[in-house]
Amino acid sequence: MKLLIQRLIAILLLVIPGIAAAYGFLLMKDSLYDYFAKIGDASINAPDFAWIKFIGGAILFLAGVGFIGGWIFFRDRKHNYLSSRFRPKVPRPPRPSRSSDKESENAHSDS
Cβ-count burial of 17 within 10 angstroms (0-12 exposed, 13-18 middle, 19+ buried)? Predict the structure, then answer.
């Protein structure tokens, strides 16, 4: 039962940002369509654009898509599915000093 509740919560954590992103997209679309419909109306001299509605929709859309994209990115990083440019940088081990190589060459040449 505990595993079922955990999975339900995990699904909700992905569905809620998805719904927010879809609603934000609809707000942006509606504000653009309303503006273009007002341009075609001959009785309106200067149509106004619903900036608050459009910016609110853009924030919802970007937040939802960003959350889902980040979740997928970190899940793929955990499972090592990412390209090499997205993997964490691992420093190279230091190279051995060249002085020990020259000493071994001198020892071989003297023999």
Answer: buried
Q: What is the DSSP code (8-state) at residue 79?
A: T
Name the residue ranges covered by the structural domains of the chain: 2-86
| Residue 4 pLDDT class (50, 70, 90 cuts) | very high
Report the predicted TM-score, pTM, of the whole model to 2 decimal places: 0.71
Instruction: Identify which of 27, 15, 21, 19 has the alpha carbon closest to the alpha carbon of residue 60.
Output: 21
Q: Per the structure block, which two tokens stand in for 18?
A: 């998805």
Give residue 72's pLDDT band: very low, low, confident or very high (50, 70, 90): very high
Q: Amino acid letter at 24?
A: G
